[in-house]
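Write out the 3D structure for:
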Amino acid sequence: MEDVSDPPFRLVCKEQGVDLMYTEFISSEGLIRDAVKSKKKLDIFEYERPIGVQIFGGEIESMVRSAEIIESVQPNLLDINYGCPVSKVTCKGAGAGILQNIPKMIRMTEAVVKATKLPVTVKTRLGWDESSKNIEEVAERLQDIGIQALTIHGRTRVQMYKGEANWELIGRVKDNPRIHIPIFGNGDIDSPEKAWEYKERFGVDGIMVGRASIGYPWIFREIKHYFNTKELLPPPTIHERVEACLKHFEFSIQWKGPVLGVLEMRRHYTNYFKGIPHFKPFRMDLVTSPDPQFIRKKLKEIALVMA
């Protein structure tokens, strides 16, 4: 969720009932070098709790030093990303790249666990490719060196985000009698019904939602309502969509400044108004104007015209 799960995005998700959130993943190398972008990602707010800071990196020493830095902002947990499949990350042996070197993955994790008083969790994938789906062994080894929970994305690194996520292997990890830490499943959860089905079918302790929440934070309230009642909530109204988008926009301006705040919101408009007829002309205005006041006016106009 790089360049997505920043504080403005997390605000609208929190208001829609999300239970636990993570920061954007932070480069350990950037953090120890005091890079502005990396340090900025450490901004967390009290209302966001519980929240985890997620880090990635390919060097053990850098990961240890960044864990020590992260303690200063006192998140509720520290999460290690061993799942990002993007080439610019994996080529450095970070993210899912480390799935080609499990012994180093274990050494790195153990070093981070020993370096911090924070609970350490891990997010990873089934393996590097079809021939190395070793998540069952990896889960045991990570648990044995002290992680407190494990999130598994049901694809290999080679799959990226293609094909269907394999939850069968996630379920096998959860069913392993040796495993006693919480196991969270991730991949393809885009509706309350699927969240319920997969949680019941595979017995996981929780569901992680990523891409389906982009521009649609209501998925969290919908899932929780369905879990409690087995009833589906109606989709958000156009007024609710505009209100959430405006709130996201205003915090983006406040947190990033008027130039970057406007630019980085452009990736969200299509998702906020996905499926809304006649949105295209509004979208062109929203993604081309640099003027915050014009964008506010256009968003309010959407509520009036499409209500």
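The domain at 7-229 is CATH 3.20.20.70 (TIM Barrel).
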